[in-house]
Amino acid sequence: MLILYSFILYLLVPVVLLRLLWSGLKNRGYWNRWYERFGFVDLPAAKRPRIWIHAVSVGEVQAAVPLIQSLMKTFPQYELLVTTVTPTGSIMVRQRIGTSVMHTFLPYDLPGAVNRFLDRTEPRLLIVMETEIWPNLYLQCAARGIHILLTNARLSEKSYNGYKKVGKFIRLVLHKITFIAAQSETDADRLAALGANRGRIVVTGNLKFDVEIPDSVISQGQSVRRLIGPKRPVWIAASTHAGEEEIILAAQRWIIERFPACLLILAPRHPERCTSVAELSHNAGFKIIRKSQLISNQVEQIESDVQIFMLDTIGELPAYYAAVDVAFVGGSLLPRMGGHNVLEPASLGVPVITGSHTSAFMEINRLLYERRAAVQITDPAQIAEIVIRLLADPALRQRMGDAGKALVKQNQGSVGRVMELVSNILLAGDNQG
Question: How far is the C-alpha of 74 from the C-alpha of 122, rounded, in Å?
Answer without folding.
Answer: 20
